[in-house]
Amino acid sequence: MAKRVFSAALLGCAALALAACNASKNESLSAGASLDDAEKASETLLKTGGNGDDWGAIGFSYDEQRFSPLKDIDASNVGQLGIAWTADLDDARGQEATPVVVDGVMYVSHAWSKVSAWDAATGKLLWKFDPKVPGERAVHACCDVVNRGVAVWGDKLFVGALDGRLIALDKKTGTEVWSTQTFDAERPYTITGAPRVVKDMVLIGNGGAEFGVRGYVTAYDADTGKERWRFYTAPNPNKEKDGAASDDIFASKANATWSDKGEWQTSGGGGTVWDAIVYDKDLDQIYLGVGNGNPWNHGTRSNGQGDNWFLSSVVALDASTGAYKWHYQETPAETWDYTATQPIILAEQQVDGKPVKVLYHAPKNGFFFTIDRATGRLIDAKPFVDGINWATGYDLKTGRPIENPEARFYKTGKPFIAIPGALGAHNWHPMSFNPATGLVYIPAQQIPQAYLNDMTELDKRKIVGFNVGTSLTGTLLPDDKAAFRAAVAATTGRLVAFDPRTGKVAWSVAHPAAWNGGTMTTAGNLVFQGTSTGRFRAYAADTGKQLLDLDMQSGIVSAPSTFRVGGVQYVAFMTSKGGAFPLVAGVAGGVTRKVPNIPRLVVLKIGGTAKLPAPPASTTLAWNPPPQFGTAAQVAAGKAHFGRYCIVCHGDSAIGNGFTPDLRVSGTLANADAWKGVVLDGMLKDRGMVSFAKVLTPADAEALRAYVIDRSNWTKANLPDAAAPVGR
Ligand code: CA
Q1: CA of 445 to the centre of ligand 1 (A)
Q2: Quick one: which of 147, 143, 108 has its CA closest to 660?
Q3: 211 CA to middle of ligand 1, Å?
């Protein structure tokens, strides 16, 4: 097959540098080239992306643009996409992975860190792998027991398990080759992100910054699982050396950005790298997207002092050694859970008439960043959503945000309703970049959140649950119908086509609810996205015109990929609700509350005629709250415990989102002993509902029961439609 070049911009080599790029056979291969077997099993597929037959990594190639050169499907025929095959999956939890396809075999990870392999064209199951993560690990997962994908490399593939194991599997059989524990399992760490493979090393980070951990990324030998290097993204608790690649930069500069008095010394400081780890093949360096601080509250975390490197930063490291090269901190002195973990895209853009290697980033804080990859210099930062109120913009000379002083609630002592909130203007849902249009397609959203200083939480630092130094109880909605309706109305989603060259939104599409799926774009001038309301759509990449709208029965959070087998182009994705939003959203889930949650792998092709299985019968849950009991003080105590321990999985005001059980209709609610059996005795621990006996007394559990019964009665009387319990 002829090797063809479809876009010079994708080469990663400016025209002047072509001679250097031709130095080796691998590097002389252009994007768009067909690859032989040896090349597919090497870095070449990840460096070039190949001709689009394969989708070799979750982000397509090292540049993580999620752009396919395939154009067999385009505006003229995308409306004829139908189902080629589907496969129902085991667990009705979030399915966040992007399917990876190499040589006609699809590899995908699932809830509970399970992995499966399929004949990508026929849907024949080739193997399944279950790492058997203990169910009680779920209590340490802020945002569901999800997994965002595998990395395929040579004859192996790699997956990070929720309990901290990095596991190498035989690509052909799914049998374990090696496994290594990447964190102290006694601490509330998790892994939900996809590993990346660079230079015969597997890179993985971790999550846990809501609970209290210290973030880091480790590189392991791909053949043996032995550690090569580690870079910490928050300081050593005693500001001592770790014997890690991060030692020098902490000693010389980063330690000084953390107060010597602060909760970080106990909690670990946060800064976990739970999603974006991107390799720059042009500059041979790695970019880490670093998470929020722990506790969130900068006033308690670092005594209100210092920028706290490397929280909410993009950090560039030498790929071979992990040595620090540069960083850019998007949110200095982070205090709103504004992570910079969101996906990072590498591209080339004309800046002042010259081609510049840039990275694109749209983190939670609502600004779109264009950063010079060689130096870390901020080229531009512009809002990609409306209504941002924590900052008015960025000073491009200093690279710092121009903050609204009201936003630092721990200084003012007053609550601040922030846009965006902790779920972000953009969360983990992958964005994509189309070199032909120059646009970046962002699954954006609006989910406001109140922040309120709460030192007492940390005085009572507990070993289970969130430790954020910010009152989640204070954010619970009051007994006010208008407030509930306002919360629904204020929570929306939007597909944003952002033009980094102008710093403006080129076009956008409004979604009725937040937490929509990731995007993928193609040389067929298409953008694909699933929605939280159960649709799978395609749009014209240049104009945003809707060209496809399929009913998928279930909410969709994952991003699609595309590939070609036997000359046929396919589009693959998973359905399911899941992640942080359906856990915590409560009534703000709006219309998505009633959308079913079906874990399913779906593959489409032009003229596909397969049918989805029959949708689940809609169930009406009996809603007969037991009579209220307890004093006002008891109910208030229950509310405080709920805000502290329960809201993050069971929703504001105990209103479920059709994902985890709606406690207002729990069969245990009317029976104090049964309730206690679940809350304190851990009867449902294998499903992730562990015992809270370490932090709650029997009297606390009873106060919680009084509160949930109170909420069940109040919502039934006041919001019979908007808050009706829905089945899962
Ligand atoms: Ca977080």
Answers
A1: 16
A2: 143
A3: 9
Catalytic residue among 337, 380, 662, 700: 337
Confidence check: pLDDT of 15 > 60: no
**Distance from the alpha carbon of residue 210 to the mean position of ligand 1, in angstroms:** 6
Average pLDDT over residues 107-114: 98
SS (H, E, C) 171-215: CCCCCEEEEEECCCCCCCCECCCCCEEECCEEEECCECCCCCCEC
> Is 70 exceeded by the pLDDT of residue 16?
no
Centroid of ligand 1 to alpha carbon of 339 (angstroms)? 6
> Which fold does the domain 453-489+617-728 belong to in CATH?
Cytochrome Bc1 Complex; Chain D, domain 2 (1.10.760)
End-to-end distance of the chain based on CA atoms, in angstroms? 49
3-state secondary structure of 467: coil
Cα-to-centroid distance, 166 and ligand 1 (Å):
22
- The answer to whether 450 and 415 have CB atoms below 8 angstroms apart is yes
165 CB neighbour count, 10 Å cutoff? 21
User: How many Å apart are CA 549 and CA 83, to the nearest integer?
Assistant: 13
Q: Separation of 140 CA from ligand 1 center, angstroms? A: 12
Residue 154: beta bridge partners?
A: none
**Rounded to an integer, what is the distance from CA 507 to the centroid of its chain?**
24
Angle value at C-alpha 246, between 244 and 251, nearest 5 degrees = 110
What pTM was computed for the model? 0.94
pLDDT tens digit sequence for 509-528 = 999 999 999 999 999 999 99
Other C-beta atoms closer than 10 Å to the C-beta of 177 total 17
User: Per-residue pLDDT averaged across 41-51, rounded?
Assistant: 88
The span from the CA of 458 to the CA of 725, in Å, is 33
Structural domain boundaries in the chain? 453-489+617-728
| Residues, CB within 5 angstroms of ligand 1 (ion) | 292, 337
Answer yes or no: 307 catalytic: no
State the distance from the centre of ligand 1 to the C-alpha of 53, rounded, in angstroms. Answer: 36
Rounded CA gap, 499 and 496, in Å? 10
